[in-house]
Amino acid sequence: MSGTGETVLALAESWIGTPYRHQGAAKGIGCDCIGLIRGIWRELYGKEPETVPAYAPDWAERSGEDRLMDAARRLFGEPIAVGEAEPGDLLLFRWRPDCAAKHAGILAGPRHFIHAYEQATVTRSTLVPSWRRRIAAVHRFPDVRSG
């Protein structure tokens, strides 16, 4: 695991217990999965990754675009192979193969990830087969020196 990956994982762990809040991005106050990633990015690089417009809970279904995947490519570059994933990497999930990616988390080890769990909190979950098969992409955070 890279130094940046270690830092990302430590930051993600510091968000555990933050309540779920749609469109939130404030540690300890509230966030959704996108807000968790935005918050980690801010802590890592000192600024928002980009302006995020308001979005409805069903944004992925309504837009007709794969906006989460597009944003990940803009900010992180091309995805890496799932088999090369390391702790601290960004995981994107899609519920069905024909749907846009709609959920994000941080890999916390070979069997766990950290994410904002709807109607709960930021939590560490087991990467059980039902989660693992929904992984749509893995991205590595840019090295802190180049972020």
Descriptive terms for the model:
single chain; 147 residues; alpha+beta; two-stranded antiparallel sheet; 30% helix; 20% strand; globular
Describe the structure.
By secondary structure, the protein is α+β, with helices and mostly antiparallel strands. The protein is 30% helix and 20% strand. The chain is built from five helices and seven strands; from the N terminus they run αββαααββββαβ. A five-stranded antiparallel beta sheet has the order 6-5-4-3-7, with helices on one face. The chain has a two-stranded antiparallel sheet with strand order 1-2. β4 and β5 form a beta hairpin. α1 crosses α2. It is globular and about 40 Å long. The mean pLDDT is 92.
Summarize the structure.
With 147 residues, the chain is α+β, with helices and mostly antiparallel strands. It is built from five helices and seven strands. Strands 6-5-4-3-7 form a five-stranded antiparallel β-sheet, with helices on one face.
